[in-house]
Design a protein that fits this description.
Elements: E1 2-6, H1 11-22, E2 27-31, H2 44-47, E3 55-58, E4 61-63, H3 66-77, H4 87-101, H5 103-117, H6 125-143, H7 156-166, H8 179-189
Parallel strand pairs: 1-2
Antiparallel strand pairs: 1-3, 3-4
The protein binds glutathione.
The site of glutathione (GSH) has 12 residues, from α1 and α3.
Length: 208
């Protein structure tokens, strides 16, 4: 049985939740309360000494990074489309995974967290905005004439990039000028098994 240790508030966690759902895999959820610091204490630190969510446990195997988990799930449970074996397509997917782990998080991800959590997040909002608009400009041009980021069908690149780009407006970022990006978001949301990202700050939490 697969167990997902995650936080509803976390976009990195949503990537994994979305992938499990797109693949139609049954799984058990364990919510880790980041605002209470559960991720920095035992027993969670025993699963992930880095003290971060998400973590996936599958039959004794523990994987600790959202992008590594997407690769694992696609390879183990998906068909070849999610993480194509063909070298050129695989390289394109991997390139977008790199962007998902860097620009997507440090741009729209940080902008959204800063707007929602304020001083709780020690981040440079202006830097996040700059990164977000650079990302959106490049993504919009890239998506012109194509439906998906890295192939002619959805891959884990789309799953990895979706959540923080979709949440950009919560970070004060206007998606109106980026028509190709908006259409791509709607395509992801139209996939069978899609689950939305619900990231309200829990009432009564340290950040509320
Ligand atoms: N590279 C990791 C990053 C995970 C990460 O930073 N998770 C955040 C929540 S979105 C977290 O647990 N932060 C707590 C911390 O770093 O103290 C991944 O993709 O899973």
């Amino acid at each position: 049985m697969i167990t997902l240790y995650h936080a509803r508030f976390s976009g990195n966690s949503h990537r994994v939740h979305l992938m499990l759902s797109l693949l139609g895999l049954p799984f058990r959820e364990v919510e880790i309360d980041l605002f209470k610091g559960e991720h920095k204490q035992p027993p969670f630190l025993g699963l992930n000494p880095w003290g971060r969510v998400p973590v996936l446990a599958d039959d004794g195997l523990v994987i600790r990074d959202s992008l590594a988990i997407l690769v694992y799930l696609a390879e183990k449970y998906g068909d070849d489309g999610w993480y194509p074996k063909e070298p050129v397509e695989r390289a394109a997917v991997s390139e977008w995974l790199g962007i998902a782990g860097d620009d997507v998080v440090r741009g729209p991800g940080v902008a959204m967290l800063t707007k929602l959590l304020g001083d709780y997040v020690k981040a440079d909002y202006d830097d996040a905005l700059k990164r977000a608009y650079t990302l959106l400009k490049i993504m919009d041009a890239h998506l012109t004439g194509r439906d998906w980021l890295a192939s002619d069908r959805p891959t884990i690149a789309d799953v990895a990039c979706y959540c923080y780009v979709a949440s950009a407006p919560k970070g004060g970022i206007d998606l109106a000028p980026y028509a190709q990006v908006r259409q791509w978001l709607r395509r992801v949301e139209g996939l069978s098994g899609f689950v939305p990202f619900i990231n309200a700050v829990p009432a009564g939490s340290a950040a509320a």
